[in-house]
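Inputs:
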Amino acid sequence: MSPSIKAREFPHRHLLGIAELNEADITQILDLSETLRGINERPIKKVPTLRGRTVINLFLENSTRTRTSFEIAGKRMSADTINISGSGSSASKGETMLDTARNLMAMNPDVIIIRHQASGTPALIAQHVSCAVINAGDGTHEHPTQALLDCATIRKHKGVPGQGLKDLEIAIVGDIDHSRVARSNIMAMTKLGARLCLCGPATLMPRDVEGLAGPEASERVRVCYRLEEALEGADVVMMLRIQNERLGAGATRFANTREYSRYFGLNRNTLSLAKPDAIVMHPGPINRGVEMMPDIADSMRSVILDQVAYGVAVRMATLYLLGGGSFGES
Ligand code: NCD
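Outputs:
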């Protein structure tokens, strides 16, 4: 690994959302992830890059993939990683988020990674701490590292070298309204040149959904309410989970799960409308038989586990860029 990896300084102190990144920033993270991915395939998966750095994983909302991959990413870069979860923290005793953050800061970490059910929490914390803050998913707002790992996966399978995601047709299907994954991906994918079709029941579509990509890219986003229409000619099909936990107790936006699955669930027949070499994605956790039939999730078209593998590499790259890592100096 050469020091030239730092040739372009990353111009951000925190990673709070894709909104603040431009195409060059995103490409820098994806390129670095591609380089770092190789470390995960070695017999000894460890480099000294972040030796002596402390990374705190503060996860106040459930997570399997994101929390584990941030922890593994930190460990493979030799950082000391500490995990704090909602039930094991003083948040459950009534401590405010700011007090928790200030107390953690007194221990002098280099990076705090935050997942929280309230949109905006990582941005608020970033204003009150002197270390780097990474948003690992805040409410319905953003999930930037998920979008980055999704773009890395698409670029690998479908991208033309040096062209980002230019002119790829990507269908994102499901509960767009409550999905921070969709919000971050709409921005990241359009910044890299893709064209998107957002699809789901009208009751799960946010108002001004085309506007989520920003004024320059809104013409590259269309909305449709029929799965068949969204899938036609797609290079990439990304299915999303219904975020029941954000609907409120007893609330529902569609008649029942069986009906949702009938109209918006991906099965062999509907997938045949996409390009013959289209890939199928899902951020996980999958509700098998609801948004996607099990045979599709397990098929050769599915790159879902590749997304998980890129998750570690992308998180290594963000920790490196924000945690002050250095190659070739140890
Ligand atoms: C997503 C999340 O938490 O927003 N999952 C993830 O991070 N892999 C999507 C979801 O929970 O459905």
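Remarks. The beta strands are 54-59, 80-85, 111-116, 132-138, 169-173, 195-199, 221-224, 236-239, 279-281. The domain at 3-142+310-322 is CATH 3.40.50.1370 (Rossmann fold).
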